[in-house]
Structure formats: structure tokens, C-alpha cells
Amino acid sequence: MSVKDKAKEIITTCPYKIGAVGSxxxxxxxxxxxxxxxxxxTEVTGYGKYSTVSLKSxxxxxxxxxxxxxxxxxxxxxxxxxxxxxxxxxxSVSDLFKKVTGQDKISGGTYANFMIALERVFDxxxxxxPTKKSKEQFRKRGFFADNDNLTGDYHRLGQYSxxxxxxxxxxxxxFKALVAEDNAIISIDLRFLQLVRNKxxxxxxxxxxxxxxxxxxxxxxxFVPWETLHKDIFQNLESLSLxxxxxxxxxxxxFILTCHxxxxxxxxxxxxxIYIPPSSNLLRSYKMDSS
Length: 291
Prior knowledge:
The protein is 38% helix and 17% strand. By secondary structure, it is an alpha+beta fold.
């Protein structure tokens, strides 16, 4: 399916009807703490629904489209099969690549980048401190699993060579406890994240998930100033002037609204920020059919 056909499908077909609704961890998007591009960051801390969210890695943190798609796919898998401690999610890493990205063909360069992202996602450790007055914390070595593994040869440096072997997924108990919390998981349209990867608009990826989250957790229209958007979504671009930041933001928003013409997200007439309706319709088709 071409990029143009994928965009048309998102506009005309409800994701619920074709099983395209996936999930994404709220603590990664409120605020957005995954780097947009590759940087030498090995640790990052953010504040939002939780008082403190920290990600750590022995190497640079995962970044870009592939990392976000992998995380979305694995989060979706754990919610679809919460009772299973471990199960096969793909017949090979090549098969996993096709499922995660929606691509039928794999080039050497894209596959290599996917493998790097896959390795780094599994290498992350995270710590979450809830806002409740409690000492309970989630700490994990390995982002999603007690024994995260891709069945096959695993080297000390974390290189995976399981291209032709089945891929097993073993979610951790701590991550299961986290996703069971209210508002800990955001529902998203996986097709749109795949389309954004083809368009190479990482900011549109994060902005889309952010808008879904803000639109569904409020009971009334919410106003978000430019400064808050910059802090929550573009914290990796703090050095940008406000005018440059707004140009990149509007470009990403326009792409989202092209694929979701009834989203009803709008920029304030005084250019102070944006309005997000209580139900942003970012998980609905053009015809508003969610049956």
C-alpha cells in the first residue's frame, strides 16, 4: 500500500473496525521525553502525570520513529494478551519489522536502523515515581521485560541476531502493574504512526499522541499555550526561537489535521496557543463511525 493509500485509509476507515488501534505508555508522552534525533543522552528525566519519570541506558537513548513504533507495538501486545507471561509475537525479526512498520519490503539500511532501535528499546531502564504520597516506585532493568529477549544469539553488548528465528516477548510484572493504572496507557491509531514514519515527521508522531491524551482526559475544551507545548512536546528543541518552534509545530499539526479533518484542534485567533476539544476525534474515521 502506497503512502497516499495509507493516508486515504486513515481518513475514510475507522481504526476500530480493522483492528488498527494500538497503545502507548502515557509516561513517555506527558511530557515527551524520548529524544527526537540521535544524541549522546544516556539519561533523561521528565515531569507530568507522575512526579518524576527517568529513563537510563548504558548507550544513547533510543530515538526517532522506529523506537516509538516498537514501544507502541510492544505496549499493544501486553494489553492484548495480559494473561500470557511469554508468547511469540513474530516468526522472525524481519516479520516483526513488517508488523511494526507496516512495510512489505525491507532495505538493508532501514533494517539496520530498526535493529539498532530494537536493541536500544530493550536496553532502557526506567524509574517512575507516582504523584501519590507513596514510596512505591517502578524500577526496571530492561524497558519491558524481566528477561527481555529475542530468541537467538545474544551478545554482551546487546546485539540481536535473530533474523530468521521466532521472536518471544516476556513482559515484566512491573510494567504490567504500570499499564493497569488509570490513564497510564493512551489509545492510538498505529496506522498513523506508520504513516508519519514514511513522511519522516517525528514531531507529528509525538504531537499526535499528545493531542489524543489531552483530548480524552478532559471534560471540556482545553487551551494549551505555546510555552507549554514547547515544554511538553519540544523539550529537545529548547534552543529554537519561538518563531522557528511554531513553524515546525504548525507543519506537524497540519499533517495531523490532513489525516484527521474532523479533529477540531485549532490555533487560537490571537496566536497564543491551541485549543484541544474533549474528544479530539483522532481515533475516528472521517465519517465519525466507531462502531
